[in-house]
Amino acid sequence: MENNNNNVFKTLFDINVSDKVKSKVGLSYLSWAYAWGELKKIYPDAFWTVYSRKIATTQTSTIKDEGGVETVAVTTTENDVPYFTDGKTCYVKVGVTIEGREEVEMLPVMDNRNNAVPLATITMTAVNKAIQRAFVKACARHGLGLYVYAGEDLPEVDKKVIDYKGIAENCDRFETKVLSPDGFNQMKNDVIALVQGDYPEDASKAIVEYVTKTTEGKRLSMFELDSDNQKLQRIYNFINEVKKQLAAPSGR
Q1: CATH class of residue range 2-52+83-150
Q2: DSSP codes of every residue in 102-120
Q3: How far, in Å, CA of 35 to CA of 7, rounded?
Q4: Would the pTM of this model clear 0.70, i.e. be above it?
Q5: What is the mean pLDDT of residues 148-170?
Q6: Tens of pLDDT along 92-114?
């Protein structure tokens, strides 16, 4: 079994997830859907477990009989909740089992700034997000995308270097074309959507820098056809070129 588990780890660790890595609040991560899809393609019998605890809920009700006598009824029910608590904050526990071996990850329930959520303000939305994150990290314990959580965006041999400065210089020389009002408005909407997309941290930084430099701090939504036609097209070209480079095979 040990040798088999070593094979599982090597198989999953060797999967290149570089083009699936996303960044949010300075942290790199994989989507749970991608991780689950990769696991099931190779190990269809793999499964995951969300651990829970039971809590008792007590309800009281008053019943009045025909004679007007009131009786207080107390009903206690037990429910499963998918999180645990130390009395101040909460955490989830998720296990992923492959080829008979389970790897378990425990993760705090966090807000959108990655701060632990106090018990008094816990929500099932935050719990669900923590479960998804813990699931992906449990997959990483089996090898899938482990290097993402080792402080590396990509393995050293796979690390993709993109010449953002060169792309910017090419876009600054980019030949623009005359746009109709409808074409300009459509491109403006497309550019706004592109800027708001998910990119690796270095790509996101480069996009923000290029947009800021090109617009001189002006909001994209305020762009007008006559004055900002060239700027808009150059931003559009820059982001699409960055996306093209990110999507290119890394050679592994």
Answers
A1: alpha beta
A2: EEEEEEE-B-TTSPBPBGG
A3: 18
A4: no
A5: 69
A6: 999 999 999 999 999 999 887 77
